[in-house]
Design brief:
This protein has 415 residues and is an alpha/beta fold. The protein is built from ten helices and 19 strands.
């Protein structure tokens, strides 16, 4: 069987205030072309469909328009879509009965049986067939993002996931589908995976790695695990079959600036052998940084901004890159942001933010700050206090011209 694995769409996301509907539509149109080209038997979407539990009507329209077009474009296509930690599990589950008529299977929760106590593991067991057949060829264990209420009280995240997967494999072994190859769709943070430096909270990992679990929680006998949650596409070194993060189709933070985006094409034979291939996708808008590495002085920043491409007449900015500026600030530059904004007015970029990097403290610094803390505020002249604060921030003496300006301001304030 042939599958396409994708994840972490984050429909409805805004990037530093910029709406991303055009970017998401560009990706979904590209994915439709790949579906027509590859004619897969199934599409696996491993969570974080939306960016928030309460997505906008426009975000929901994007999803359902795509699902309708996808199932029209590839006759017999099956779609498996699970909830991630950004999604509302109930919202994902709500249209399940209607979507099932189009071979679209959504799984937002691990429901309980009629007794109200026993988990209905069969609900997460999905037999899949080839597009031109109704006979099951493999079984997908579709595990949405789990919360503590989804497994016995007192278990850790890792123990809970292991418990659920053990019960799912047990359910399959007692079903008519035993002996078929197994795949899994899941949404969790696997140990050994690479995450973005800086993070910027784009992947919402629990502080301290408390939600980081060994990939072996899925257990043995699973040919391919289609993971979501981390935005960098990668294959895990795990003993439990082939495990991959498809990665996000769009960069979700500047710390993901160098990620390579796309989807994973998966071929699984009748004996469970798995082969994968990346289908690269180039987002509509890229991420750009000035300078490309590190930070630059204010005068260098203005020169770099001046070298940016100029907006062409009639260009609506659809494919302009997002821009981040990093300035190395060795003294206060209160007018720099205004100067940069003016210089960017005719540039073909979407300006997102300016990050000011202050000098690193030397090992010997801190004596002046300690003296300031020991002294009572009324014992310090305003200039002395300003000098100590400047040294605490910039780790050098206040320049003479700033001392002069400070004294002028003090004189005007006391007149």
């Amino acid at each position: 069987m042939k599958l396409i694995h994708t994840a972490d769409w984050h429909l409805g996301n805004t990037f530093h205030g910029y709406d991303r509907t055009q970017e998401h539509r560009h990706f979904l149109d590209w994915l439709l072309d790949r579906l027509r080209e590859q004619q897969p038997d199934a599409l696996i979407v491993s969570g974080d469909i939306y960016d928030t539990p309460n997505p906008s009507a426009a975000a929901e329209e994007l999803l359902y328009d795509f699902l309708l077009q996808a199932t029209d474009a590839v006759r017999g296509l099956q779609v498996v879509l699970i909830a991630g930690n950004h999604d509302s599990a109930g919202r994902i589950d709500a249209p399940a009965s209607l979507l099932k008529r189009h071979n679209i299977y959504v799984r937002g929760t691990l429901p309980l049986r009629e007794d109200g106590q026993t988990p209905d593991y069969e609900h997460l067991v999905l037999p899949l067939s080839r597009r031109d057949s109704e006979e099951a060829e493999l079984v997908c264990l579709a595990v949405p993002f789990l919360r503590p209420s989804d497994y016995p009280a007192g278990m850790t995240v890792a123990e809970g996931l292991r418990h659920v997967f053990e019960n799912l494999r047990g359910t399959v072994s007692h079903s008519d589908f035993r002996g078929l190859p197994l795949i899994a769709a899941a949404h969790f943070y696997a140990s050994g995976a690479e995450i973005a430096e800086g993070m910027e909270h784009s992947e919402r990992l629990v502080v301290g790695g408390q939600d980081c679990v060994p990939p072996e929680v899925v257990g043995n006998g699973i040919a391919y695990t289609a993971l979501g949650h981390l935005h960098k596409a990668q294959t895990l070194a795990a003993s439990a079959g082939t495990m991959q993060y498809a990665g996000s189709p769009l960069p979700m933070s500047f710390s993901e600036r160098h990620y390579i985006h796309g989807v994973t094409l998966v071929d699984i034979t009748v004996n469970g052998h798995c082969e994968t291939q990346r289908l690269p996708y180039h987002p509509l808008r890229t991420l750009s940084a000035l300078p490309s590495k590190g930070a630059a002085r204010p005068e260098e920043i203005l020169d770099l901004v001046g070298s940016l491409p100029v907006r062409e007449k009639g260009d609506d900015g659809t494919d302009w890159p997002y821009l981040e500026i990093r300035v190395r600030e060795e003294r206060p530059e209160p007018s720099l942001l205004h100067q940069v904004a003016q210089a960017l007015e005719d540039k073909a970029v979407h300006f997102c933010r300016m990050i000011r990097e202050l000098p690193q403290a030397a090992a010997s610094t801190g004596k002046a700050t300690a003296a300031a803390h020991e002294a009572q505020p009324h014992m310090l002249a305003p200039l002395d206090m300003a000098r100590l604060i400047f040294q605490d921030i910039y780790h050098k003496e206040m320049p003479a011209e700033m001392v002069e300006r400070f004294n002028e301001a003090c004189a005007e304030a006391t007149d």
